[in-house]
Design brief:
By secondary structure, the chain is α+β, with helices and mostly antiparallel strands. It is 29% helix and 22% strand. A five-stranded mixed β-sheet has the order 2-1-3-4-5. The longest helix is centred in the first third of the chain and has 12 residues, at 3-14. The structure holds tetrahydrodeoxyuridine (THU).
Amino acid sequence: MADCELVSAARAARAFARAEFSGCKVGAALETVDGTIVTGCNIENATYGLTICAERVAMFKALSDGHRVFRRIAIVASTKGPAPPCGACRQILWEFGGDLEVVLANLRRETGRYTLGELLPVPFDARLLR
Ligand code: THU
């Protein structure tokens, strides 16, 4: 699947964002090893702290549907420049997705491209608990 398809899926998911408090709508599209795309959007809460980011929604939906191996994630926000995943999302994506390709985009174009290892270079993970 082309990167642009994954980015399009993230843009479409962004339309469902519940971002009444910040106004910042985010969409994510996670690609599994078999090519399935699982999407997510951010969902905010009046208590603010219960807000969940688009990336974690996508990953939790995918895990809950039984997916276990992932390749790439596209993340779309309306920012002019790159809107990279927050620290909490980097940790969750690393723990369940490993060294994913991360494609960032806004409403018109790609804004950045990283590996998750570049975004989270010294992770705390399950290897440290063995
Ligand atoms: N947000 C995401 O969905 N993903 C991120 O990685 C960063 C932030 C959302 C959370 C909140 O609803 C809004 O963007 C502003 O922080």
